[in-house]
Design a protein that fits this description.
Strand order of the largest sheet: 1-14
Largest sheet: 2 strands, parallel
Helix content: 25-40%
Number of helices: 17
Number of strands: 18
Strand content: 5-15%
Length: about 575
């Protein structure tokens, strides 16, 4: 709140200095032009925007900074709780490359891993960038590979993950091991869409053409350094999501989430439609009008909470999933609540039988895998230590000591929960106001719900933070504007998302992506290179939950389409 208050005072003083009259509720309309400085209007009601909409993260979660680097800003709640030192240390953990030296300050990388650092997947603290070829070391490549067994033909988006590699497949390994997947066998192509399955033309009625691209991903079976090697495979790409504002989403009460599900289910029921076609039946029991078993997630201490994080909504708390989990399974750095390596039995078996791996260990008597120095002894040590199904840290080969301290994990979670949402821009602009009107009229806000209220924010806390009497930033009773209904929907895109259902992506702050990350790629795999492409992918199939709204966008004039885009860039 301290940061925000200072910003508001600055804006007010600037307005007085230049003799600008403030708007009032009696005269909310502002005569504005696109080149007029919006600072003089921040914090005021303008047109069809409330004063509070300038601050999408509320008083405790918004930064007044809108320049490059604003995704890195701490929330006012960090200052209120005197957590700035911990926040900065957590920022270091996010940005620093981990090493294989387990005794170093940032040690513990591997033995197999996805990236060496968190920021490698989140350039500029935002979403990952679209890349032309898959290379884990390519900065900005935020892609995670998805490997699964398709249930209905090779083009199916659905099916269980394969078991030979981890859920977030690893393409890197530290010496002397081979990576679970050799990157040389990963083939990524971007193809131009030639037609919409829905039949919607790829030229707007006014003659302007839009282009859509999509990824085609394949991995050679020989690229899998596992035993056995997998079969019956399909692949998809998923990019990392934005980090800022996640603490505020964690603070939305479960009762509010339930009310949103009930409202959505009632809409489809009253329309005579099958609720389960539009509200994920794994999350919502349409007959009981209540949560289904799949909506619940069991936290580390046995507490059950409703899932809300990741595209597939597989996690329920920021402190036991999403970023907390990634700090373990991306660099594979162990900690007291994650005592096992993020590996698979199939990879451990392959490494224990690989003669080159055995020979490299045999040449290094100081290796923790050396055992008695015989081929058989080394193989046994490798299998025992790398296999997550063995009691790998309570054996003669290794005494477990967490590579990340509890204090460091707390600092990382202070940082993660403390990232601010940048304030809105240009809400005084009549074009932006027109864009908001159209966004609502087309029905976009039915999924991209603008407004939420946080509760008391009694967040779940991991045991290692509780036992040390430490705290995290809180966001009680905040009015926030994330532009998401926190629910799953299906868009049925070509080569779409694994699992078909995808959480509605929050739109707040995305208009600043280019300034912060150098790219404005959108959707789950960054296939959309701008807002128009992102919107039009919603109409690829008539089965899409958003087809009707997108068809309305398609029929807009060029001027109105531009207004919608400017609105999206402003919130």
């Amino acid at each position: 709140m301290k940061q925000l208050s200072k910003a508001v005072i600055f804006f007010a003083c600037t307005a007085l200095l230049f003799g600008v009259s403030a708007c009032s509720d009696d005269d909310p309309n502002v005569i504005s032009t696109t080149d007029e400085d919006d600072y003089r209007y921040v914090g005021q009601k303008v047109g069809n925007f409330l004063a509070e909409e300038w601050f999408p993260g509320g008083e405790l979660g918004t930064t007044g900074n809108t320049a490059a680097g604003c995704y890195e800003d701490e929330t006012p709640a960090i200052h209120d709780a005197d957590l700035m030192s911990a926040f900065l240390r957590g920022e270091m953990l996010f940005e620093h490359d981990f090493t294989s030296n387990s005794t170093a300050s940032f040690g513990g990388l591997g033995p197999a891993y996805v990236r060496t650092s968190c920021i490698a997947c989140h350039p500029g603290y935002g979403h990952g960038k679209r890349v032309e070829s898959y290379l884990a070391d390519l900065r900005g490549n935020g892609y995670l590979l998805v490997a699964y067994h398709p249930v209905d033909g090779l083009n199916s988006d659905d099916g269980p993950y394969i078991g030979e590699v981890t859920g977030m497949p690893q393409t890197k390994a530290v010496y002397p091991f081979l990576p679970p997947i050799d990157e040389k066998g990963i083939h990524l192509k971007w193809l131009a869409l030639d037609r919409m399955e829905s039949g919607l033309p790829m030229t707007f009625p006014d003659g302007e053409r839009y282009e859509l691209i999509y990824p085609e991903l394949s991995i050679d079976v020989e690229a899998f350094n596992t035993e056995p090697k997998p079969s019956n495979l399909a692949f998809r790409l998923e990019s990392t999501i934005g980090l800022y504002g996640t603490g505020l989403l964690d603070a939305i009460p479960e009762d509010s989430l339930k009310a949103q599900y009930q409202k959505t289910a009632a809409y489809f029921k009253n329309a005579g439609m099958n609720v389960s076609d539009y509200v994920n039946p794994n999350f919502w029991d349409a007959v009981a009008n209540d949560w289904a078993a799949g909506a619940w997630y069991t936290l580390a201490d046995g507490t059950k909470r409703i899932k809300r994080f990741t595209y597939a909504m597989t996690r329920a708390s920021l402190q036991d999933g999403a970023g907390a989990n990634a700090m373990w399974n991306i660099p594979n750095v162990s900690r007291s609540d994650r005592p096992k390596l993020y590996t698979t039995a199939a990879w451990a078996t392959a490494m224990s039988k690989n003669p080159d791996v055995i020979a490299r260990i045999k040449a290094d008597p100081k290796s923790p895998y050396y055992n008695d120095g015989t081929d058989e002894g080394i193989a046994a040590a490798v299998k025992t230590l790398l296999d997550p199904n063995t009691n790998q840290f309570d054996n003669a080969y290794h005494n477990f000591k967490p590579e990340m301290s509890d204090d460091n994990f707390w600092q990382y979670m202070v940082w993660h929960r403390g990232l601010a949402v940048p304030r809105a821009r240009d809400l005084n602009d009549a074009v932006v106001q027109r864009g908001k009107q159209l966004f609502n009229e087309m029905g976009c806000a039915s999924c991209h719900r603008a407004k939420w209220q946080t509760g008391d924010d009694n967040y779940w806390t991991p045991a290692m933070i509780v036992k040390n009497g430490l705290s995290l930033p809180k966001y009680p009773n905040q009015t926030i504007y994330p532009y998401t209904d926190m629910m799953h929907h299906r868009l049925y895109m070509k080569n779409g998302i694994h699992g078909s259902w995808c959480r509605t992506t929050p739109l707040w702050g995305r208009g600043l992506s280019r300034a912060n990350t150098g790219a404005e790629d959108r959707l789950h795999d960054c296939r959309a290179r701008n807002e128009v492409e992102a919107i039009m992918w919603h109409a690829y199939s008539k089965k899409s939950d958003a087809y009707v709204s997108t068809e309305k966008f398609y029929k807009l004039s060029k001027k109105d389409r531009d207004a919608v885009v400017k609105f999206l860039k402003s919130i």
